[in-house]
Design brief:
Layout lengths: L3 E5 L3 E6 L6 E8 L6 E5 L7 E3 L5 E3 L5 E4 L2 E3 L3 H9 L5 E5 L12 H10 L1 E7 L2 E3 L4 E4 L5 E6 L3 E7 L8 E6 L2 H8 L5 E3 H9 L12 E4 L2 E3 L9 H14 L5 E9 L3 H21 L14 H7 L11 E7 L2 E7 L19 H20 L4 E13 L8 E12 L3 E10 L2 E14 L1
Parallel strand pairs: 4-9, 11-19, 14-19, 16-17
Antiparallel strand pairs: 1-10, 2-3, 3-9, 4-5, 6-7, 7-8, 12-13, 13-19, 14-15, 17-18, 20-21, 21-23, 22-25, 23-24, 24-25
Helix pairs in contact: 1-2, 1-5, 5-6
Bound molecules: zinc ion (ZN).
């Protein structure tokens, strides 16, 4: 059973104070259809414009995360987005009559309470995931570092340290509704006194008070109520990471390891994930690969070619156009051994491996013509080699080979090219000699 998308069961809302303007704001959650995603709606503006909670709409990341479309903005979206994602809501409209949600006590508690009031219900469409297949990372000059590692669950591990490494903390968790509600949602925003004083002076955080943030001044922790967890700061950092990564618009299966994270770096990772997802969707166009009498299956290929893993570079021959012309296919996966070193974090298939693939498909033609496999083909030359486009994990290569010349039984020339998504990615003219085994 695939995991299904979810929305809220019914409309629910509450009112509170906006952090930056200090004004009263009412926020309501509405159910939304499958594949709708999370959208913010500004009920206070003419025509009630909506803004998609997507990384493409990210505007600023200073102190809080702001998204916008055209001239319309919504500020400080990260806590409500974290709660929606972690509590399992994929589709909803977040309606507000101001440019910012209520700040509550500076944690995500109010949003978790709201989602529980509205209820969460399953829809008919399966959830969309981003699977971390290779390591990705984002870092900043200020020392923030986020790494995304492959994992079959969504996990976050985070370290946080204040000035002079005061309040150094670590927390690690799998993001599930129960763990989020218990361990992360109550963790409040914290600010450093030095950072917040100039903003107070400029009147930029009119709604800010010890009711909705913990203020750290030197060794002292100032807040209305005592710390909720000894490591409340790192837990809030995880809350912000979840909220910012929600802008990917898909569930993530991967492990985020974060060092001193901030909104800017969180957003950069969200952007890289979205870019990678776009690339994967573009290359994943399904195509049918014919089987049957026209070609050779893997077993038959291996009866002809002496090559074996990891050096067998053709999965199947899909067609013989003539005796001297055929097309092979090779599906490139991230599990290819060469991706481990070529290059970690930026896997591209080495061009020489494509030449090898062309040589193997050409040899199949030669072996079939010679009707013997008692010889071994040796590469003599490769001319006019061109690598036109990178070949990436997930690509299916169609390897075209045509014998252009054969002199006697022992020498042959082939013209070859590799195609991915209807574009030539590489080409070469190869010459072989055949020697008895
Ligand atoms: Zn926050």
């Amino acid at each position: 059973m695939p995991e299904l998308q979810q929305t809220v069961g019914k409309t629910a809302g509450f009112s509170g104070t906006a952090l930056h303007t200090g004004e009263k704001v009412t926020l309501k959650l509405y159910p939304a259809p499958a594949d709708h995603g999370i959208k913010f709606k500004r009920k206070d503006l003419q025509d009630e414009p909506t803004i998609d909670a997507k990384i493409e709409n990210l505007k600023t990341v200073e102190r809080a995360t702001t998204i916008g479309e055209g001239p319309v903005r919504v500020h400080t979206v990260e806590h409500v987005l974290a709660a929606l994602w972690a509590m399992g809501v994929d589709n909803a409209i977040v309606e507000m009559d101001a440019n910012e949600p209520p700040i509550g006590d500076g944690s995500a508690q109010i949003y978790v309470d709201l989602i529980k009031k509205a209820g969460v219900t399953a829809q008919e469409e399966p959830r969309k995931f981003f699977d971390a297949r290779e390591t990705m990372h984002a870092e900043s000059k200020t020392g923030a570092l986020l790494i995304l590692l492959p994992d079959d669950k969504f996990r976050v591990s985070c370290t946080q340290a204040g000035p002079n490494n005061r309040f150094a903390q670590f927390f690690s968790m799998e993001v599930t509704p129960a763990v989020f509600e218990r361990e992360i949602a109550p963790a409040r925003t914290f600010v450093y006194y030095e950072d917040v004083m100039p903003l107070m002076d400029k009147n930029l955080i009119k709604g800010g008070s010890l009711e909705n943030a913990i203020v750290v001044r030197g060794e002292a922790v100032l807040s209305k109520e005592p710390l909720r967890f000894p490591d409340e700061f790192v837990r809030h950092k995880i809350l912000d990471i979840i909220g910012d990564l929600a802008l990917v618009g898909r569930r993530i299966r991967g492990h985020v390891v974060a060092v001193k994270p901030g909104h800017a770096t969180n957003a950069e990772l969200a952007r890289s994930i979205t870019r990678e997802q776009t690339r994967r969707s573009a290359v994943a166009t399904p195509r049918t690969i014919p089987t049957g009498d026209g070609g050779l299956d893997t077993d038959q290929v291996m009866q002809i070619l002496p090559h074996r893993f990891p050096f067998l570079m053709v999965d199947r021959i899909i067609s013989f156009e003539t005796e001297t012309k055929c097309v092979g296919v090779k599906t490139v996966t991230i599990n290819e051994p060469f991706f481990q070193g070529h290059f970690p974090g930026h896997p591209v298939m080495p061009g020489v491996m494509q030449v090898e693939a062309m040589a193997q498909v050409a040899s199949i033609l030669l072996f079939k013509l010679a009707k013997t496999t008692s010889r071994i083909g040796y590469f003599m030359s490769a001319d006019a080699v061109k690598f036109r486009k990178p070949v990436l994990p997930g690509d299916t290569i169609f390897i075209h080979a045509e014998l252009t010349k054969s002199r006697g039984e022992r020498l042959a020339k082939a013209k070859c090219h590799c195609v991915v998504n209807d574009a030539i990615v590489s080409e070469a003219e190869l010459m072989f000699t055949f020697l008895d085994k």
